[in-house]
Amino acid sequence: TQIEETLVLVKPDGVARNLTGEILRRIEAKGYSLVDIKLIQADRGLLAAHYAEHEGKPFYIPLVEFMESGPVVAIRVAGNRVIEGFRVLAGTTDPTTAAPGTIRGDLGRDWGLKVQQNLVHGSDSPESAARELELWFK
Ligand code: DAT
Ligand code: MG
């Protein structure tokens, strides 16, 4: 076993659609543990740091504006190989083509022109997880 921690965010669309419980249910059903959790209205500075790797990309400003449009639920999740495992649970980035059985595939809606409404964020590597957990739970 390889116990890791990852950062999961239920994005503003997930919170607004009352899907937080369903997303937590899937995380817990998989066997992962909730270590810490909070509802937070993220400010521009936190989001700029969180999404620094995407600065300058065409979807960056709409992404940040979407992420500050309402509260998000930040969760510290622990489990065996949870960083990669949660990414699989979430499904691919675009909910339109995310596989059935995944959070985005089952619950996501199509992207509009300027929105990134794919319900969840999950850290994509051990380095990202450490960096993002420090940002959201310092
Ligand atoms: P992921 O969230 O699957 O790790 P990412 O890190 O590449 O995806 O991008 C961060 C977010 O930005 C993603 O959840 C939704 C949005 N996004 C990514 N690529 C996009 C695109 N081509 N058009 C619009 N939004 C995009
Ligand atoms: Mg990412």
Automatic annotation (TrEMBL):
Its cofactor is Mg(2+). The active site is at residue 121. Its EC number is 2.7.4.6. Residues 3-138 form the Nucleoside diphosphate kinase-like domain. ATP binds at residues 11, 59, 87, 93, 104, 118. It comes from the Bacteria. PROSITE patterns: NDPK, NDPK_LIKE. SUPFAM superfamilies: Nucleoside diphosphate kinase, NDK. It is an enzyme of class 2 (transferase). Transmembrane segments: none annotated. It catalyses: a 2'-deoxyribonucleoside 5'-diphosphate + ATP = a 2'-deoxyribonucleoside 5'-triphosphate + ADP. InterPro entries: NDK-like_dom, NDK-like_dom_sf, Nucleoside_diP_kinase, Nucleoside_diP_kinase_AS. GO terms for molecular function: kinase activity. Keywords: ATP-binding, Kinase, Nucleotide metabolism, Nucleotide-binding, Transferase. Gene3D superfamilies: Nucleoside diphosphate kinase-like domain. This is Nucleoside diphosphate kinase. It comes from Leifsonia kafniensis. The lineage of its organism: Bacteria, Bacillati, Actinomycetota, Actinomycetes, Micrococcales. The gene is ndk.
